[in-house]
Amino acid sequence: MDKLRICGNGPLNGEIRVSGAKNAALPILCTSLLTADTMRFTNVPMLRDISTTQKLLQGMGVRVMTDNVHEMEITADHLDSLVAPYDLVKTMRASILVLGPTLARFGEATVSLPGGCAIGSRPVDQHIKGLVAMGAEVVIEHGYVKAKAKRLRGAHIVMDVVTVGGTENLLMAAALADGTTILENAAREPEVTDLANCLVAMGARISGIGTNRLVIEGVDKLHGCEYSIMPDRIEAGTFLVAAAMTQGHLILRNAAPRSMEAVLDKLVEAGAVVEAGDDWISLDMKRRPKAISFRTLPYPAFPTDMQAQLMTLNCIAEGAGVVTETIFENRFMHVPELNRMGARIEVEGNTAMVHGVEKLSGATVMATDLRASASLVLAGLVAQGETIVDRIYHLDRGYEYIEKKLGAVGAHIERIS
């Protein structure tokens, strides 16, 4: 099993190109199930979750071509199977996103209940509630969601909670439904907007994009198109935190600064000088960071996927910061590992009090989920001595060649087996 060996090596300096967004690519690849035409996607990140999605689609009979790096051509002119099996879905909960488009186009779908990171309960009840409102017959048996509908029909759906996956699944299903669907309390995340824009490029009729009220006028047929995946705001944020923690200077290319304003604001509050254009961000940090307090909430507030990284910045900051996690109930699993490296973090319920220390100490630590993995890498960049991050298959789910990107800007980091 691969590990990362990291030795603190001072400031990071240079340029990094941000990869395509994992959380946008996964639902967008599933749009290929909505049309018999070929879909061509560019700026696709090369990640374990993308490979899992490719295997899942191919297992259903979809043809996937990956002749060029970061590009995919996908054709779903017919399917051999309408089942997404447990063996694939258990490793990536985003697999549930094949449910809506498969049901909408083929009239039935069977999808295993999902797995993924162990960061807390993420039920699919809102997905099912919406599909039932659109006329589907849905049963859950033997660990599978089984749905049927001759043709979905438009409906007015008010989601009980803000759910990114639920919004995406229902958005894709509604694109081919008979009539108009209104999604209230819809997720506003940039990745949802990216999915909606891709559907529009395929011929879907969607208004309210970027708001919490999406109106979809169903069409009889969607066509193929070429679409470029948006840049990954979480990868970008992780690299900016790395530069801030090491008191370095970093320029990010192929970035989307307007999608990550809450994170940039917190980095400025920590003492960084941040500048941005349409597709680039620069960060310059000339001092020890100042501790910051924040609360995770749905977009456009501070994202839960950046909580572990900013908490790690607080570990070596001046002062103390309070971190409150409101999205997932089990997303502080990185705390014991950071404390083993000399951090001073106290957790009570969904709140962590982080007292900054001057130095962390290298240690062997174990990753428990995707973003926790990133936080341990960040800690290793500023720790004295050697840090070994174990179980980095979590990291490979969401970061493309992270050791190469960080190594190119001065980090002492290598992958070992």
From TrEMBL:
Q: Which residues form the signal peptide?
A: none
Q: Where is the Enolpyruvate transferase domain?
A: 9-406
Name the residues that bind phosphoenolpyruvate.
K22, N23
> By what name is this protein known?
UDP-N-acetylglucosamine 1-carboxyvinyltransferase
The entry's cellular-component GO terms read: cytoplasm
Q: What is the lineage of its organism?
A: Bacteria, Pseudomonadati, Pseudomonadota, Betaproteobacteria, Neisseriales
What the protein does? Answer: Cell wall formation. Adds enolpyruvyl to UDP-N-acetylglucosamine.
UniProt catalytic activity: phosphoenolpyruvate + UDP-N-acetyl-alpha-D-glucosamine = UDP-N-acetyl-3-O-(1-carboxyvinyl)-alpha-D-glucosamine + phosphate
Keyword annotations? Cell cycle, Cell division, Cell shape, Cell wall biogenesis/degradation, Cytoplasm, Peptidoglycan synthesis, Pyruvate, Transferase
Tell me the name of the encoding gene.
murA
Q: According to the UniProt entry, what is the EC number of this protein?
A: 2.5.1.7
UniProt organism field: Aquitalea magnusonii
Keyword flag Hydrolase: no
Out of the domains of life, which is the source? Bacteria
Active-site positions on this chain: C117
List localization entries.
Cytoplasm
Q: Does the keyword Hydrolase apply?
A: no
Record family assignment: Belongs to the EPSP synthase family. MurA subfamily.
Q: Name one Pfam family in it.
A: EPSP_synthase
Give the molecular function GO annotations. Answer: UDP-N-acetylglucosamine 1-carboxyvinyltransferase activity
Pathway, per UniProt? Answer: Cell wall biogenesis; peptidoglycan biosynthesis
> Which residues are noted in the entry as UDP-N-acetyl-alpha-D-glucosamine-binding?
R93, R122, P123, V124, D125, Q126, D305, I327
